[in-house]
Specification:
The chain is built from 12 helices and 38 strands. It is of the alpha+beta class.
C-alpha cells in the first residue's frame, strides 16, 4: 500500500485528501520519480519534437492557406499558396528574434487581410492584429483585457468577433486546474463568456451578447445583422449540458430558438453544438446528441427555422457520428464524421438524405484544424484544409479538392514511429457491431506471446481515433514497450450512430465492459496474446471503467486508473460539472440514487483482486481526487496491492511535462511489476 503526495498539496474537492496527505503514517517521503526507463525516455523525446499545427484556414477564393504552428514555448503563423506550398512566409507581430503566442489567423471576406491574435504587445496581453495578405507589417487593432478565442469576421467584413472573458487570463475549461475554493461557493468568482466584436476600422470594442448568458459557440448570419449562439446561464463550465440555441440582432434582445429541455422528439434532453446559418439566413443547422464533453461533440444534424420551430433530424439512422459540418448550398452540407474509428468526409444532400458519390472520402486518420477536435476549413471554391495525422504518420497540413488533397507542410516527414503497426479490428456483441484499434508490439515476432493492455477512452461520448501520440498519457507508449494495445470503441462511443452512442445510458460499465471483453477475445483468436498478462487502463471515463472492470472480472492482472471515479453518488456532489449526468442517468442522484449506485465501483470493491495504481490531480474538477482516495482506501483495507499518486496543481488534463512523464513511468513500471514475463 502506498500513497504519494507530491509536495504539501491541498485538495479542493474534499477534506479527506488533505487529511491523508497530512498523515505521516500514510505519506512516507516518496521517491518522486521511479527508475527511468530508457526506452520510454526515447519515446517521450521522439514525440516531444513533433511540430504541432492548428488553426488551419483558407482564403475565400481557396488560393491561400494559413495555419498556426508551434507549442507551449511559442506559436507562429504561416501563410502559403495552395498551388505553391514552398511559398510559405511567416506572419507575426513579434520583433525579430522573439516569439510569442500567436494564433487563430482568419481571412477577411474579401481575402485581402488576415486577422489574428498575438501576445507580442508591450505588456504581453492578447491583442487582435491585422496584416495585408500581400505583405507589410501587421498593425494592432485592439489590445484585450481578458481571454479571447474563436476569432471570426462578420460576413460584411466590418467587424471582428470572438468569445471574450473580461479580466481573465485562463481559458474557460473544466479540464483546467480548478481554483482553490474560497468565499461564497457558487456565487463568487463566476466568469461570463460573451461574444464581443471589434469595429474592423477603429478597433472599438462592444459586447454583443447579454451579461447573464455564457456563450459557448456562435455564428454570424449571412447579412451580418445577427448571431446564432449556444448559451446558458453561468457557471459556464457546468451548464453547457443545458444550453439553448439563441439568435440576437446587435443591440437587440436574445431570442430562444431551440430549448432541448422543452422540445419534443429525439433532441429532448440532449445537447447542441456547432450552430450554422443557412446561406439564405432562413434556417439554422446544428449538431444534437448525447455528448459528455464540450468540444468533443457528436450526434445528428438538425435543421430549424431561424425564427423558431420544431427541429428536424436530417441525418437520423446513420451508422456514423457527424462531429462538424458547413452549409455548401441551400440543401447540402459538407460533413466530417466519425465512422467506425475513422474519419469520413463527404457532401450530403439532406433533402434527399443522400451522400455524394463524387465527393466522399474515408481516411484511417484523425483530421482537424487543430488539436484532436475534428474541424475542416472550407473556401467558397470548396477547397478544404485540415491537419491530418494517424498512428503511422505525424501531423501535417493538407489541403485542396476533397478527392485531390496534397500535403502542404513537411516539418515532420523524417519522423518514424517507435511503436507497432495499427490494425482496425471489428467484432459483434449482443447485436452491436463494435470497432477498435489494435497496436502491435513495437518489435512484434508472431512466434512469441505478448502481454496486452486495454486502453479505454474518456467520454464516454468520444472515440479512440488514429493519431500520432502527444507527449502525455495514452495508448501508444505501451506499444512502444512491446505490449499489444487494444483501443476499443464500445457502446457509448461515437462512430456507429446515435443509437449506439446512447446504448449505455443508465447502464455505465456493464454493456461497455462486455463489448471490451468480447474485443479481447477477438484479438486473442487472431494474435499471440498471453491471456495471463492482460492489463487495463484509461483516463477520465476510462479511469472509471478501469476501476469498475476490476470489480467485475479477475481477468485483468494489473490496472492503472487515470483521473477516474469510483462512486457516482458521492461524485455527483463533488464534481464541478454535475449537469452532464442528467442526460446519461435520466435523473439527479437525489431523485434516483439506485441508478447511480448500480454503476458505482465502490459498491463491488470487495470483489477486487487486481493490483491497481491510481493517479489524479489535486485540482481536478471533473473527476475530483476524493474519488480515487475512496477506491485506494478500500483496496488498502482489503489488502489488494494498490498505490495512489496525487499531483499538486494539476487539473483533469495534466499540463506539466514532468508530471505527464512521471505518470507514464509509473504506469509502465506497474504493468511490468504485476504482469511479468513467464519464467517457463
Amino acid at each position: 500500500m502506498k500513497i504519494f503526495c507530491f509536495a504539501a498539496a491541498r485538495f479542493s474537492a474534499g477534506l479527506l485528501a488533505s487529511a491523508l496527505c497530512a498523515s505521516s503514517t500514510l505519506a512516507q517521503a516518496p521517491e518522486v520519480n521511479p527508475p527511468q526507463n530508457p526506452r520510454l525516455s526515447q519515446f517521450i523525446q521522439s514525440v516531444s519534437h513533433v511540430e504541432q499545427y492548428r488553426d488551419v484556414n483558407l482564403s475565400p477564393d481557396g488560393k491561400r492557406i494559413v495555419w498556426t504552428e508551434g507549442g507551449p514555448a511559442g506559436t507562429g503563423i504561416r501563410l502559403a499558396l495552395l498551388d505553391d506550398p514552398s511559398s510559405q512566409r511567416t506572419i507575426t507581430a513579434c520583433a525579430e528574434g522573439t516569439r510569442g503566442m500567436e494564433s487563430e489567423p482568419v481571412f477577411s471576406p474579401d481575402g485581402k487581410q488576415i486577422a489574428f491574435f498575438s501576445s507580442c504587445t508591450a505588456d504581453h496581453k492578447r491583442a487582435v492584429f491585422l496584416e495585408e495578405v500581400g505583405g507589410g507589417a501587421p498593425h494592432q487593432l485592439a489590445e484585450l483585457d481578458g481571454y479571447a478565442h474563436q476569432l471570426a469576421w462578420s460576413p460584411d467584413g466590418k467587424q471582428l468577433s470572438f468569445l471574450f472573458v473580461p479580466g481573465s487570463m485562463r481559458r474557460p475549461s473544466p479540464v483546467a486546474p480548478e481554483p482553490l475554493p474560497s468565499g461564497v461557493i457558487g456565487v463568487e468568482g463566476i466568469k461570463i463568456q460573451r461574444v464581443a466584436a471589434l469595429d474592423a476600422s477603429s478597433g472599438q470594442l462592444a459586447e454583443f451578447t447579454p451579461e447573464n448568458l455564457y456563450v459557448y459557440e456562435y455564428d454570424w448570419s449571412p447579412d451580418s445583422t445577427s448571431l446564432a449562439y449556444i448559451a446558458a446561464p453561468p457557471p459556464g463550465e457546468n451548464n453547457w449540458w443545458v444550453a439553448r440555441l439563441f439568435t440576437q440582432t446587435q443591440g437587440g434582445p436574445a431570442k430562444v430558438v431551440v430549448d432541448p429541455g422543452t422540445v419534443t422528439g429525439s433532441l429532448h434532453g440532449l445537447q447542441m453544438a456547432v450552430p450554422r446559418w443557412s446561406p439564405d439566413g432562413k434556417q439554422i443547422a446544428f449538431i444534437g446528441g448525447l455528448m459528455s464533453d464540450q468540444g468533443s461533440t457528436g450526434g445528428d444534424i438538425y435543421v430549424v427555422p431561424s425564427s423558431g420551430g420544431q427541429p428536424a433530424d436530417v441525418t437520423a439512422g446513420r451508422h456514423a457520428t457527424p462531429v462538424w459540418f458547413e452549409w455548401l448550398d441551400q440543401q447540402s452540407f459538407g460533413i466530417a464524421e466519425v465512422r467506425g474509428g475513422s474519419s469520413h468526409l463527404f457532401v450530403y444532400d439532406f433533402r434527399k438524405r443522400q451522400e455524394s458519390t463524387d465527393y466522399n472520402l474515408t481516411l484511417p486518420d484523425s483530421v482537424g484544424a487543430g488539436g484532436l477536435e475534428m474541424r475542416v476549413a472550407v473556401s467558397n471554391s470548396n477547397n478544404i484544409g485540415f491537419v491530418r495525422t494517424s498512428f503511422s504518420e505525424p501531423p501535417e497540413v493538407w489541403a485542396g479538392d476533397l478527392m485531390n488533397l496534397k500535403q502542404i507542410t513537411h516539418a515532420n516527414d523524417d519522423l518514424k514511429p517507435l511503436w507497432g503497426e495499427a490494425k482496425s479490428i471489428e467484432w459483434t456483441n449482443q447485436n452491436f457491431r463494435v470497432q477498435g484499434w489494435l497496436l502491435l508490439p513495437a518489435h512484434f515476432d508472431p512466434s512469441k506471446k505478448y502481454p496486452l493492455v486495454v486502453y479505454v477512452h474518456g467520454g464516454p461520448s468520444a472515440a479512440n481515433m488514429p493519431h500520432w501520440p502527444y507527449p502525455g498519457y495514452g495508448a501508444v507508449p505501451f506499444s512502444a514497450m512491446d505490449y499489444f494495445v487494444l483501443m476499443p470503441n464500445p457502446r457509448g462511443s461515437y462512430g456507429q450512430g446515435e443509437t449506439f452512442t446512447q446504448a449505455n445510458r443508465k447502464d455505465f460499465g456493464y454493456g461497455d465492459l462486455r463489448d471490451i471483453l468480447a474485443g479481447v477475445d477477438t484479438v486473442e483468436k487472431q494474435y499471440p496474446v498471453d491471456d495471463h498478462r492482460l492489463g487495463i487502463t484509461g483516463w477520465s471515463y476510462g479511469g472509471f471503467m478501469t476501476m469498475f472492470a476490476v470489480t467485475q472480472t479477475h481477468r485483468f492482472r494489473a490496472a492503472v486508473s487515470g483521473a477516474g471515479l469510483s462512486d457516482w453518488l458521492s461524485y455527483y456532489g463533488e464534481n464541478s460539472i454535475d449537469q452532464w449526468m442528467i442526460p446519461f442517468f435520466g435523473a439527479s442522484v437525489y431523485d434516483d440514487p439506485q441508478v447511480y449506485a448500480k454503476s458505482s465501483a465502490i459498491n463491488f470493491v470487495k470483489n477486487v483482486r487486481t493490483p491497481t495504481l491510481m493517479v489524479v490531480g489535486d485540482r481536478d474538477g471533473e473527476c475530483p481526487a476524493p474519488q480515487s482516495f475512496e477506491f485506494w482506501h478500500a483496496l488498502h483495507d482489503l489488502n489488494v496491492p494498490t498505490e495512489l499518486v496525487v499531483y499538486p496543481g494539476e487539473g483533469h488534463g495534466f499540463v506539466k511535462a514532468s508530471d505527464r512523464l512521471n505518470v507514464l513511468e509509473r504506469a509502465v513500471a506497474w504493468f511490468q511489476e504485476y504482469m511479468p514475463e513467464s519464467r517457463e
